[in-house]
Amino acid sequence: MREAIHVEKPYFLASLREWLFTTDHKKIGILYFTVSYVFFLVAGLFGMGVRLEQAQPGMQVVSYDTYNYFLTGHGVVMLLWWAIAAHIGGFGNFLLPLMIGARDLAFPRLNALSWWMFFGASVLVLLTLIPGNQIKMMWTGYPPFSSNPDAGVTALYVFVIHLLGASSIATAVNFIVTYLKMRAPGVTFWKTNMYVHTLIAANVIQLIGVPSLAGAVTMLLLDTYFGTNFFNPAKGGDPLLYQNVFWFYSHPVVYVQVLPIFGFFSEIVPVFARRPLFGYHTMVFAVWGIVALSFIVWIHHMFVSGVPNWIRVLMSYTTLLIAVPTGIKIFNWMLTLYKGAIQLRSQMLYMLGGIFMFLIGGLTGIPNAMVAIDLGISDSLFVVGHFHYVLGMAVTLGILGAIIHWFPLATGKFYPENLGKISFWVIFAGANIFYFFQMVVGMLGNPRRYPDYPPIPEWAALHMIQTIGALILGVGIIIFTWGMIKGLISGEKAPQNPWKSPSLEWRLPVPAPAHNFGDEPPKIEKDWHPYRFDKLEEGNK
Amino acid sequence: MEQIFALPYEWWKEAVIVWLIISVIIYLVVAVPGLYFVMKYRYKPGEREIGDHDFESHAGLEAVFVVIPTLIVLFLATYSFSIFKKMRTVPDNAMTIKVTSFMWGWQFDYLDEKGNVIKSVLTGYNPNDYTLSEEEKPVIPAGKPIKVLLTSMDVIHSFYVQPARITEDAVPGRITYLWFQINKPGEYYVFCREYCGTGHSHMFSILKVVPPEQFTAWLYGNNAVAIKSETNKEVAQ
To answer: Which fold has domain A23-507?
Structure first.
């Protein structure tokens, strides 16, 4: 195997056979990411269909059922493919071994199995495009509705969740073991990149939470097809059981989605501020604080579901407390900028934009957590606007910026800087126009998941503004995607460590060679730290 | 003093204003220094190529970042609790209406003190627009607290009184409740806010709020009261 280290051909030019049978974490990461990105574009089109339908009162573009299918598809794919698989399966696979100085993941073949299960789920989701196979139960799939014929093919939804869940559990085990056992000597807990900390935290949530979701959808499958009565009140079941089991995982999952994005912010902001991450230690505690709290807040999704009043109040407190560790992170990023030497490269713009979106998203999360306000805005477009600031835009801006940042490591080329900057400003403007006014119309009372709404002039005007914002956002995504293609084909050749970062992955030549650092782990100096820029060799500072 | 328009809308609005003020302050405290740092501490070749490496952490400052947000959120949670308690405590003089949801509409049963049904109104499914015939509109008296008992015949629905900004789900097999009060006569929307399939966005009703005398006449009479239907529906701002 020694020779393989010296392969000169970039790994991404490997043969089709190598791609199909690969167990290499970088190739698998790229496979994950490619599928996720394509799905992101498709789910974006679904979202655009939803948005265009709401541009005016009345039904103009699609039927109710198509709308419901689009919205279900948009939710499922954006959450499970884009906001989880793109940066856990994609970036996590690619970066985790590189950042800790390992050769590969602990179980490369298990990793390949994860990828193929994920691929199977992707095929299953595509089957819903066939007329008659559509699922129209929204991504939450609440029974008894989801057992109803109007909800579409329940089994497809359940199997998609099962396959993705099995894949996620395998990945979580793999990542956690890799982190615990395969760090290069010198990479201690307190010298681990924030991205790795957040990735491991996210996978701990996956490991604890996914079985709960799998249980919920299994009961749903049994109820729908095998005549059990878990959720059937006529035979002693309770529909709220599903919601409890579902949200026990599906609330923490928002931290699976967003914690690694915090990792991206924490990696890229210091590099372009040329300054260590402020409050690194509190940041790590904050991550684990969020993990712990995330499992005791799920009732805030059920504030109006008829659960007892005392549990609503209790979980209103725990939910609001999550603002504390999250706030710490925002303060720390801001203080990382203090006395820095800031370069506004395109990926830095994406990170600052992402933090800005997250700040708005965080502040607009407060009324959802304050149970008294939530009774008036639950299931309204306010909630939709809020989580598109957090999960929609903070996550998307984080991933897009990360693409630009690690593009040289994956391809050996630069992402075109001018397209990076243009796409950022277009996306940022479009998203703010869109989601801000979505929150306003939600405050006025517009319920969510409505293809049609009463012809109230204010609502119609606000929906039109949102639609214009959404179109601008769409143009921005197209520009960004064009930049990726252009960078791949004719991007400027990148030198090793183009951003002059002390992080371990940049010790490799670009693109990263097969078997990473080779047989010997990288030699790590005693005073090395992923955020110490003053310890870089001269000329690299 | 301006007359109270609806409850719990007034309390809800007050809570929204408190949240908004605190959020704008937090936003400014975070974003303004952040923007200032970005503008001031720029990379300059030969002059400013590396940032400060001494100010990496500060125990006092970080403790402040923990303590102050904790105090703010504890205040907000307790404040919200105090309002929530009022929102969920039905006044003694409330009138009870039983609302049964189905795909896609509601049946409103007006109950007397013993729980017997005095009158029923059925709002059916109108997939075409947002208008209803007079018989389909539930009528309630202005200025009187209304307690709504909710349940569902098929899937989970909800009952959202738009002018009062209050929601509760209608869950099959369970009885849930909410209460509200509207003081100004007029016509107001009620929506379903829990996704329930094809007709979800047209699962609505129009609540007709009338002066109490007219309401009594309507409740015990046979015909729908003809109150002046306004062409533009009242939409709470």
So the answer is: Cytochrome C Oxidase; Chain A (1.20.210)
